[in-house]
Amino acid sequence: MSAGVDEQEQANPGVQRGPGNDLRLVSLSKQFGAFTAVNDLTLTVPAGSFFALLGPSGCGKTTTLRMVAGLEAPTAGDIFLGDQDVTRLRPYKRPVNTVFQNYALFPHLSVAENVAFGLKRRGRKKVDAEVARLLDLVELGDRGRRRPQELSGGQQQRVALARALINEPEVLLLDEPLGALDLKLRRQMQIELKRIQTEVGLTFVHVTHDQEEAMTMADTVAVMNAGVIEQMGPPGELYDNPATTFVANFLGQSNLVAGHVTRMRDDLVEVDVEGTTVLASRTRSHADGGAVWVGVRPEKVFLDSSGQTRDHGINVVRAGRICDVSYTGVSTQYLVRMPWGQELTVFEQNTGARELFRVGACVDLGWRAEHTFVLDAAQDAHAGVEYEDLGT
Amino acid sequence: MTAPALFPGGGGADDQQQPPPPRRSRTGYLLLLPGTLWLLLFFMVPLVTLVSTSLYDPAGTLETGYQLTFAFGNYVDAIDDYATEFTRSLLYGGLATLFALLLGYPLAYAIAFRAGRWKYVMLLLVIAPFFTSFLIRTLSWKMLLADQGVIVEVLRFLHILGDDGRLLATAPAVVLGLTYNFLPFMVLPLYASLDKIDVRLIEAAGDLYASPPQAFRRVTLPLSMPGVVAGTLLTFIPAAGDYINVELLGTPQQTMIGNRIQSLFGAGSYPAAAALSVTLMLLILAMVMLYIRRAGTDELL
Amino acid sequence: MTATLVRAGRWVTGHLVMFVALLVLLYMFLPIMVVVLMSFDDTADVAYQFNGFTLANWSDPCSSYGMCDAVAKSLQIGLLATVGATLLGTLMAFAMARHHFRGRSIANVGIFLPMASPEIVMGSSLLALFVSAGFAGQLGFATILIAHIMFCLSFVVVAVKARLSGMDNGLEQAAMDLYANEWQTFWRVTFPLVFPGIVGAALLAFSLSFDDYIITNLVAGQSQTFPMYVWGVSRREIPPQINVIGTAMLLVSILVVVMAEVVRRGRNRA
What is the pTM for the complete model shown? Predict the structure, then answer.
């Protein structure tokens, strides 16, 4: 790697390579005419991490990626690699490479020539050994002479990856690279990508709309909606402690019930929900009082037949009536209609410990207080919902 | 292959990628500049000169020079004297276009949907005549349609022609020649349009109880309309202005407006010739405008 | 015998469209077959009929007075016009396909008009221009060349633009992402991919130029190109050698197209 570094610096005097530079976006904005695609975005991607930018189509994640790559000029804001301001640099002067959604492999060059492209442009003459090494890394060692058109989708994707990786960029950008692959291949590639990233130690920024993909692969996930970051953090934190209704709905599913804060203590919040008092931990409360949404994940809720008493520390809402039962093998999904008209979702794992409830049964819903999260009622309870099952 | 890619829309690559991010640079104008200048100077300006020439005093000659007298009377004279030729040109041009459409549509359809492996070969066969001098080809028609030729003999035998009927030096021969010469101009845009049609649409029509003729009438034909219109324009316009076919295959009875313009130029009657030319051009422009009104300008190229 | 006829008949009705299409192709090729045939004719006559078979025309095509000079002139003009039109037209095609500018609609119409205008109008307007500008006495090679570049330009633009539009322009972005600057991107990615389109356009321009009569005749003055020569002799004795040139043109073009296809297939297989 060191020999390569010297040659790179000679051929590409634009940016100093440091050992692991953080990628910093500062107040980044992009307007297309009257449409704001990216709105005052600020985030830091730590060097060497696997960072996922997650959001529905049109939320601005691809635009952000393109701005980091240099393919789109920001309307405002700055991009830093370490201490270097790269905002105005042309794409070919940035130590950043992209794996494109449709791969963008050069059809008039062979696979090996594609992979060698970046190195050759930077002035390297003897590239065969490197190319062979990268092709082996992505398990395409014997396909070097072929044309991209002759390869399958999965193979093309790996060529695109090798083509970007060989340049050892400071940041590798991946624009929904697994979108066109079928499910099995996608799972395989997810594991591959994560393995390569840990092995090579580069910073990966992965843009996707698939929340499962983001949560599986990334160290840090940023959920993006309509040009802004709703929340950023490790996948577990985003899932267990969503800060906005969008995140609550976009990642997995949530039950959101309207309520009113009655008391705020040091460590607990008491909320009145349709006549019942519900407790939540202060750390999972993102509202200051007044009208709120009380949220809980469906898999955290358990059903009891009516009238059972429960321990302190368990929130209970009573008098629900089951209106739908969906058996999916691993679990059963219940839709419970509550007295105030709302339908709540409950996932119960089919452990076999108890018989399934029937439609029409009267039940109480309970969950542990620490699984509750509280969100500001001003937010739209349906934000993020409709993107759940979209494939593309 | 490049030749078929000339009128059909592109080298066959899929159209699924996003539109190019438009580069608002001045490079676009710079690139456009040389070609635009050339066209302006040698197409637009000459048209202007043509108009002004048409308004010269008709009494002028190459020797004595011309006076710009705004002689609009030239136009009146032109339309008066040559009304027959104008109508004849429109008629022959129209007939040729019609026949070209009737002959060209099945050909384009066959290449687009039925040719399979032979697609490029058939396209090549359509374009190949292009590569032989069209004058020579038209001369060949002279031989094919000659009184002693096979075709005339056969037609006399079948009593389609009278015993002393002839093909050469008649109006049908001229129309035939026109149809022949401009057939590729009809076939290629038609093919381009038909090729873009998703076959599955036609299959869907069949699935929805349409018989093949119905599927054609209600799905294929409407979708191929851009090609039909483009082909019609590209055929009718040159055909109406042609004079070669008349000279080689016809008689003075079939004179078209092109012949008149050419002979007037030859005789040095520039104002009259120019007036005729401009009138023809205006007729054409009117039709192109009609087309643009309906289909917009992006389809043109 | 009847069985084959019946089978043939059934093929026709089953493949009616293809049958008609083949008939039309036959119609298109009939005169060409005559051209090839007549290139072996042994007598130049007015009546244009086949007299006797000879190979003399092919072995000595220039024996017809003035023909080879005319062919040479047509070739020269064709070459120069091709270079000029291809150059200007390619630049324009890049502008139309890749760049955003106001006046796009006007450009579209402006480029389309020469393709659709009757040749007699284009020729007469050019003649009018040259005469008014005082060049009536200098009509010749230069004026023909100017005219040819003019009417070939639009076709080049259409051909190259079609090729450009069909190209994935993400490729250029990928190239820049991979450290190629603008010039390198053009030279190593855009140009190789658009090149077949440019070659096709050049070939088209050449055939349009070589074959043009109406416009050339009006602005040629004393010069004579091959089509003008043919026109001249068409009123008199028609030497069979013109068919030699015609057939040769056809063969060369078919050869070029076939070679292009072979190259394309070969490259894709590698």
Answer: 0.77
